[in-house]
From TrEMBL:
GO molecular function: monooxygenase activity
Protein name: Antibiotic biosynthesis monooxygenase
Annotated keywords: Monooxygenase, Oxidoreductase
Keyword Oxidoreductase found: yes
All residue ranges annotated as the ABM domain in the record: 1-55
């Protein structure tokens, strides 16, 4: 299992619009990558937005990050206070309820 993670700082007050755009734009792009298993977005109190998607293979996680960063630069720039960062790697600890 591998995770693709993107993180950026949002402009204050943009949580609702970010959520709408992510649901309409990013979810279809990321879920279309082979090996897709799950997608989560966390909006922290300091306006940091973290998207985490789970895949079967490392190459799939990297592909998701490539697609997501391109989409972020094109469609979310006006809502962000800086550039998005991306990382991918193996999930070394996980649990489910």
């Amino acid at each position: 299992m591998y995770a693709a993670i993107r993180q950026a700082k949002a402009k204050s007050g943009s949580a609702e619009e970010l959520a709408r755009r992510i649901k309409e734009g990013a979810v279809p792009i990321i879920s279309d990558v082979d090996g897709f298993r799950a997608y989560y977005v966390v909006y922290a109190g300091d306006d940091t937005v973290t998207a985490i998607s789970i895949f079967d293979k490392f190459e799939q996680a990297e592909e998701a990050n490539r697609r997501a960063i391109a989409w972020i630069e094109k469609d979310l720039g006006a809502l962000l206070a800086g550039d998005a960062r991306a990382a991918a790697g193996p999930v070394i600890v996980h649990t489910l309820a």
